[in-house]
Every structure is written in C-alpha cells, then in structure tokens.
Amino acid sequence: MQIRLEGLRSEFYREIELIASLFFEEVKVTDSLEEQVQAVLQFQIETGNPVSVGVTLTDEKGEQKWHASHQRAIEASDEKSYRKRLKKVISYAVLQVLQQATGVIQPWGILTGVRPTKLLHTMLLNGKTIEEASGILAQDYLLQPHKIEILKEIVERQHAVLPDLYELDRKVSLYIGIPFCPTKCAYCTFPAYAIRGRNGSVEEFLAGLHEEIEAVGSWLKERNLPVTTIYYGGGTPTSISVEQMDALFTQMKRWIPFYDQVREITVEAGRPDTLDPEKLDLLKRWQIDRISINPQSFKEETLKLIGRHHTVKETLEKYQLAREMGIDNINMDLIIGLPNEGVAEFKQSLEVVERLRPESLTVHTLSFKRGSIMTQNKEKYRVAERDEVEEMVRLAREWTQANGYVPYYLYRQKNILGNQENVGYAFPGQESLYNIIIMEERQTIIGLGCGAVSKIVAPQTGKIKRWPNPKEPQAYINTYRQHITGKLQALDEVYGFEMPMSV
After folding, report:
1. Across the strands, what pairs with 448?
2. What confidence tens digit (pLDDT) does each residue in 117-168 have?
3. Which domains does the chain possess?
4. What tens digit of pLDDT does each residue of 186-235 get?
5. CA distances from 446 to 113, 227, 369, 443, 467 (A)
6. What's the maximum distance between 2 C-alpha atoms anywhere in the chain?
7. Cβ-contact 120, 82 below 8 angstroms
8. Which of 188, 231, 261, 465 yields a CA-CA distance of 20 to 30 A from 452?
9. Which pTM was predicted?
C-alpha cells in the first residue's frame, strides 16, 4: 500500500507509516508526484496552543474522500517535547480518518509500541489516579474499553505480586541465552540454531558463557548488587546435555552473589522433545522454580507445518512426566492464528489445557516477524482473518477468567495479527516475576550468552541503555571477551561506579 502525503513535514512520515500499517500490509509513504499511489493523505496543521490537525483521505481514483480533525492543547517546555505531542495529535487524526474509510476500529487506538502497561505505570507514577489514567487512555490514545480493563487488571496484579516493583533499580535480574534448539520453528526469530552436528561449537560457546558468568558475578559481588530473578532462555536451554546443564547451574551458584536469595529461577524447556527423566530430575534437584513446556498448538498437522518436529503425544507425555517428578510450576504457550487454525482449533487447544491445568498459560497472537521462515514464505501459510483473530483473543480472555487464571503481563509486537497482543495468564501466586520485570523495564536485566540483550536501567532516572551480545554462536565465541569488557564498563557508567574491572 503506497500513500502520498501532502502538507506534512518528513519528520512525521514514520508516524503515518506506523498508523497506516495497522490497517494495510507493507505500507510505504511518499511525497513524490511521480510515483503511483493507492491513496492520498492531505494535512492541514495549525500549530500553536492548542494545535489543530485536519486530514483528508482520497482514494486512488479520487472518487471517495474522508475527513477527520483533532484539536488539543499541548503542554511542552521545549521544542522536542512539543514535536512529540504534536505527533500524537497527527496520529489521532490519521487513525480516525482510516477507521472511517475502512470500517475497522483499532482496539489499541494510536498505540503502536510494545509495552502499553508501561504507559499506565508511568501515569500512575506521575500522580494520576487509575480513573484519570483510564480516561487519558480512552480520550487521548483512543483505546477501546476492553483493552483499558485488561491493562488495569494487569497493573493491579503486578503490584500485588511485586509490591516493590518501583524500588527494584538497585538490584538486577539475569538472562542466560542458550542459542540451540532441536530445529528452528517457522515463526521464530530468536537466536535458535539446530544443535545437531554442533557439538564442538556448543562446548566452545559454553566455555565462553562460563567465563562471562564469572566476570559478571564478580562485578555484582564487588558492587554488592543482589539478583532478583534468573531466566534461562534461548533457543531452548534444555537442548544441551544434562551434564552441560549441571555444569552451568554449578557455575551460576559459584559466582552469582546472594544466590540463595534469588526470588525466582526459570528454565525454558519449551520444546518437549528436549526433555527426559534425567533433565527433569536435574531441574528438580537444582530447585528450579518454574519451567515452560510449550505446545503452541495441539493440532498435529500444525506442529509439522511450523517445524516443531515433536508430536502432541510427546507434549502430553513430557508434561505428565514433569508432574510425576515433582515439577509444580509449569507454563504453557499457545499461539493464536497459526497457519490453517481458526476458532474451532483454538477451542480444542484450550480444552486440552483445561485438562492439564498448568500454573500459567501465555497466549500469543502470531506475528510475522522479519527474518522468520514464515514471513519469507508468506504465500505458503494461510492464517486467520482479523475478525477471527479478535474472536480467539476474546475467547482466551473468557476461558482464562472461567478457569481461575488472571492476566499479569502483556506486550505487543510489530505485524501482529489483528493488531492484538500477547498476554501471560497465571493462577494467582504463580506469576513469573521475570516476565513482569522485563516488560515494565523497572530493573536492569544483564544478558549473558548468545543473543542476550542487557537492558541497563539507570537508578532514579529510568533511562535505558541497551548492550546486545552477538546472536550467532561463532560470533559470540570469537568476541565474548570484548563484549564482557564493554558491558561491564557500560554498567559502571550507568550505576555511577568507579573504574570497571578488567576481564
């Protein structure tokens, strides 16, 4: 979809693309009169205070027109703040005119970011009541009532689970990235490399990771920084051998200070084909608090189509085995909108989950992530339409309420079907602390291993600095020492410590 823009400065073009992408695929905006376009957006903007924005949308043939306008008082102390608020007014008017033209009401209004709960937290921290914040979400951001309600529920639940959520900035959490899987799923863009035939690089990678654990652990000990949560992700951490897992846990306990005070340790065991009695026994002996066994779907044909390479039967057997071996906090993931799946198939998956009753259920909506096999071969995969996706999201909400689950974290992604969201549900008291912390960005998370991104949150100010590790195992093996040095220097700078330690 190519749209010509008239009467708008180029600094606002990106906002128009983001809003238009909620309605159309592969949106590109231009101001060229030479290029063929499918629509024209004409802007009339009166700056000042209040600011007024009018938008007229004309179709390709010039036969139909739609118009919307919005006026808003802007409080801004400088030019940068003024432009930021002006973008919201422009987005508001564009959303209105596109909703008129298409008949599609966007549930999240003008929000295109990943973390809508963070916006609500920020308003509450700035002194707004929950009622005032809800009004702003409805009036200024055009959120639909059911989305505001789930945000309110989640924020309330997060405060119940983590009463000190706003005071965690002098502690850290750790993410350990293990970049191996049995196979790579078609929808996945995480660092996930088929482990078969990689024995040498696995050992080299783990040697580097052990060194990184020692360096980060020493840094934490010297600076007296305790760890709140530890999360082993990837990839699938349980892809490595039981001996390698045991050595990894041993290294963590040896070097991470105040290890016995860590509130939660999670291990992603998302692929059931990586689990066996020995690994489950190891997880139990190491007192891992929470694991994930992720079916994504309980339809055999779907698992084959998306490259999961395990069966429904195997998922059920490994889940039962984990229960028999005393694992008492299990998360499961389902994905709404997988190829050839609609409401009927999603209901069937929920019926299976109802029999299993995992402590938490994360319901994702399929996203066409750039770089995934599915996105690169879109024509091969038939997925649900917007209305059907919306119905499945509603069904998940009703089903979880009826079965005693509460929503406790939420995030969104680009190119997500139906402009919906991913929601983590759990039985009260079984929520993942790490998931709350990473979504609300109130605490530094230090990433170790492949593809791990450290998000360094400055105490008091909350300003975030990102420090990514290499995604590919060989790149990590070749450069991990340089990345350790740079990361610890960045941490020292943000936390105001003196000379960084050498590695």
Report:
1. 176
2. 999 999 999 999 999 999 999 999 999 999 999 999 999 999 999 999 999 9
3. 1-104 (3.40.50.10150), 105-157 (no CATH), 162-289+430-503 (no CATH), 295-328+330-429 (3.30.750.200)
4. 555 566 667 775 545 899 999 999 999 999 999 999 999 999 999 999 88
5. 23, 10, 24, 10, 9
6. 72
7. no
8. 261
9. 0.92
